[in-house]
Amino acid sequence: MLDRLIAKIRGVRRAAFFFSLLAVMVIPAWALAAEGAAKEGGLMSWLMKFAPIAILVAVVAFVLARLPKIELGHSNAFLRRRVLNWLPLGLTYAFLYMGRYNLTVSKSAFGRLKDAEGLPLMGNADFGYIFMVGTIVYGCSFVINGPLTDKYGGKFSILLGAAGAGVANLLMGLATYSIVHEGPGAEFVKQNFTLLFCGLYGMNMYFQSFGAVAIVKTNAPWFHVRERGVFGAIFGILISLGVYFAFDWGKLIRANFGVEYVFFVPAVLLAIFFVIDKLYVENTPLDAGHKDFDTEDASSGDDGPRLPAVQVFKKMLTNPIILTIAAIEFCSGFLRQAIMQWYMTFAHQTDVTLGLADGFVTENWGLLLCCAGIMGGVSAGIISDRVFHSRRGPVAFILYAAMLLASIALIFVFDTGMVGWLVIFMSMAIIGVHGMLSGTASMDFGGRKNVGVAVGIIDGFVYLGTGIMSLTYALILPKTEVNDAGEFVGPATDPANWTWWPIAMVPMAVIGAVLATRVWNAKPKGKAKKAAA
After folding, report:
1. pLDDT tens-digit map of 275-305
2. Domain range spanning residue 489?
């Protein structure tokens, strides 16, 4: 069945390309033109409901049509088994995303609920502190999780991550249920909401951190260096779907079932995929009944015993390429989450002035982020492999240059109707960098033997950057205020008070672009290549 599906996909690649190219160019313009008409109702309003689906189909079709084929002599049986390995793994990671960004989805609902003193349960500062705690826990956990993953394998880590994050989401759902339904412990939760959710979200993010390490560790032995850019593009689709699940599915779940189910549903899905991963995911081709092969990364030619964790950390932390990539990704963490975590808050709290809350971008935020992630990851992966011969630095610089120009432009248009589409473009650029460096370069320069520590360091810096972002915006953004009718009032409703939101992005974009030039020519060298040199 899988063979027939792959054959059908390959058979329609050319047709899909021309259709999707047209659709990708036309649909966003059509969406902008029709947005105003849709608010008036009628046929256009009905047609607009299908626009998100059309956009997603067009983007996925475009990706499938343009993915290059890398011939390395793999058998069809190996390719089928490899799909069976990374597909469940990728979907698990997507649902981990759903259980990570559901805090953002629940933010507006919590903001309209009041604590014992009549203040919003979760204002801008409260969210900033909770998210900061979670991201710093995530960023620091690599000290433990990287060595554990290198020692016990990616399968161990994805199972532990899914189980732990599932339990944490269940607990957050129960705490939310008690507030909404005035159940047992409701007063305690209201009085200690920020502190309680700092603890629960921190627990969630600790187990979430196993996901990224498991993804890279598991896939490193299955993909040659020359395949990894293209694989990063394919895998980017699954990861970007996680953003779609989190924001758009989460919004539907919240609207139709209640905010507590934004936490319950990911918990159930993670439990299901725990079982699927247990049955199908294997650490290496040899574990799945196939032959291992030389991936030509930094572990190539290294057949000795695995080094102790302390020596691996020393090796990684004295590698200038790893450290430079980690520093770039610190900037990526700040920028990516500055957009993903705050645009929706900005749109809702300034809605009286700007009218963004019912706009096309806001209504389809998760889907458009998903499409941006897919296009950014695919572009970065293919260009890296085909134009720059599997070098990651040039692509990172190009995308950071685009990010810098867009962040400067955002300062001048953030209080206009252009803001939504501009931040989607910025997301495409920065997600492309993140996927290229955290997902692909960490495999290359860490090597399959030590990739757990390498990706832990790099992804740890991503979330340390996110933690700094959260603290920064918790301190500089306007205070959230809500009246008795649950409407936003006060300073946060004036776009002028959000000026520091785009300004704070510019220095990070400058630093990231400069650092990317430092790894322009970097490529992995295993022991065999070093000896030959």
Report:
1. 999 999 988 888 888 887 776 655 555 555 5
2. 67-532
Which tens digit of pLDDT belongs to each residue from 460-475? 888 888 889 988 998 8
Decide which of 27, 46, 66 is a domain's last residue. Answer: 66
3-class SS shares of the chain: helix, strand, coil, % to 5? 80, 0, 20
User: Are 139 and 220 within one domain?
Assistant: yes
Query: Is there a single domain that holds both residue 130 and residue 47?
Result: no
Helices (H) and strands (E) in the chain, counts: 26, 2
Number of separate domains in the chain? 2
Nearest residue to 515 (alpha-carbon basis) of 300, 369, 378, 334? 334
Residue-wise pLDDT for 29-43, tens only, equals: 444 444 444 444 555
Token pair for 166: 């599932």
Whether the model pTM is above 0.85: no
Distance CA 466, CA 486 (A): 29
* 50 against 419, higher pLDDT: 419
Do 201 and 95 share a structural domain? yes
CATH number of residue 466's parent domain: 1.20.1250.20
The three state secondary structure string of 284-334 is CCHHHCCCCCCCCCCCCCCCCCCCCHHHHHHHHHCCHHHHHHHHHHHHHHH
341 lies in the same domain as 244: yes
